[in-house]
Amino acid sequence: MTDSAQTVPVPGAVGELYDRLTLNAMHDGTFNTNVHIGYWDTPDSEATIEEAMDRLTDVFIEHIRVDASSHVLDLGCGVGGPGLRVVARTGARVTGISISEEQIKTANRLAAEAGVADRAVFQHGDAMKLPFADASFDAVMALESLCHMPDRQQVLTEIARVLVPGGRLVLTDVFERHPRKEVRHPGIDKFCRGLMSTTADIDDYVALLHRAGLRLRSLTDVTEQTTLRLADEIAKLAAVEDRPVALDESNFFSDDAFQPSDLAGVDDFGCLLATAERP
């Protein structure tokens, strides 16, 4: 299923959703500075979900190759956890952007509390029309944020515009793996409805990047290390605790009765890791 067959996300509505969900998470005790999936390097990894979330950010850091002289754009920055980790581990300056005003307020508060408000700045904005000059950033990272945007091509073109020549992009995105089912798993539909998301077409991803003016460096299916393992880990926790597990985004889907464990064992719900650069 391609984007054209799916409900197109509306930026304002996505922002309002994450405003509400950020406040809910802070009020009900499920708040986590990482609003993204985890990464387990090996099938026998015993990393906790929280450790795996940090590991995914570290994978991004390995790919963007930045240092203290670099300026990084965190596209769809959530509440700032990954951006603050980039600052701490590399010394780079980070500018984060989110369509959610509540996420931005929280991210700037966390940056101030960490004493890095001079190195990490978060601002409200729409990735469809980035409020930055051409060639403003040495690297861009986007952790599962493109799935919330109405036009991946437009976003990637904007990313290419704000990157310096030689600048790198690293992103994760969700897609439906082959062979595609005649009727897709209801957990995928719940995910898309509850999070105002669409799944990408991995077959078109190289063309998307190239049309944007970016050069592909790598494109990898990381489903086993990410979405599939996360759903399985949450399903295990839910079984042990005999109740739905509220972790990070899981409490965000109450309106649509979605829990990440709904995707346990759903190996056609994929995650890709792509790295590209502006020539």
Quick structural overview:
With 279 residues, the chain is an alpha/beta fold.
Description:
The protein has one domain: Rossmann fold, CATH 3.40.50. By secondary structure, it is an alpha/beta fold. The protein has 8 helices and 7 strands. The relative contact order is 0.17. Residues 243-256 have low confidence and may be disordered. Strand 4 (137-143), helix 5 and strand 5 form a beta-alpha-beta unit. A 7-stranded mixed beta sheet has the order 3-2-1-4-5-7-6, with helices on both faces. Helix 2 (49-64) crosses helix 3 (81-90). It is globular and about 45 Å long.
Could you name the key traits of this structure?
seven-stranded mixed β-sheet, 7 strands, 19% strand, Rossmann fold, 279 residues
